Amino acid sequence: MGLSNLLASAGWGLWVDPLRNQLFQTMTELGKQLVELHLLQSLLLSQPKAKYPIVGTDKVEMRKYEEKTGRVFINSQQYFEGIPKEVWEYRIGGYQVLDRWLKDRKGRSLSPDDVEHYLKVITAIKQTINLQRKIDEIYPGVEESLMPLSM
After folding, report:
1. Which residues of 33-121 form beta strands (DSSP E)?
2. How far apart are alpha carbons 119 and 126 in whole angstroms?
3. What is the pLDDT of residues 2-47, one digit of tens each?
4. What's the rounded Cα separation, in Å, for the pair 37 and 35?
5. Which of 39, 44, 124, 128 is most buried (most C-beta within 10 Å)?
């Protein structure tokens, strides 16, 4: 029996502030979406935000980002495109995610699965940035809704 059921059965009314409940539900949903993105299990990843348009050797010989075109070159002819600067520069644990992923594959040819994975990571980062903005917008309401603890 849950606490709310126990309190209700004892005759104690349980009142939930609708604003707090809505904020909690919203933050819970945003958190769930972040988890799905970071595990690369989100349905949003089925529609990549970037492309890998040029056929070639797929060999990672360089990691060169061109802000003007939103392209990340892996060799003199091939690139991923549609990558905003904020996505290219996104860091987790001090590492620039997209650059680090390519650096770890320098000298190798990317498989079709590697390309698909990288496109998903790009999309996951873009969606993460969007979700972080939403969280930042509503978080002041979360702080305002906190009840002080009495000792």
Report:
1. 64-66, 71-73, 79-81, 91-92, 95-96
2. 11
3. 555 554 555 554 445 666 677 888 888 999 999 999 999 999 899 8
4. 5
5. 124
With residue 103 as reference, give the H or E element that holds it. helix 97-103
Q: Per the structure block, which two tokens stand in for 134?
A: 């939403």
Q: How many CB atoms lie within 10 A of CB 88?
A: 21
- Report d(CA 102, CA 94) in Å as an integer: 16
In terms of Cβ atoms closer than 10 Å to its own Cβ (0-12, 13-18, 19+), residue 10 is: exposed
Q: Is the pTM of this model over 0.90?
A: no
- The Cα 36–Cα 145 span in angstroms is 27
Check if the beta carbon of residue 139 is closer than 8 Å to that of residue 23. no
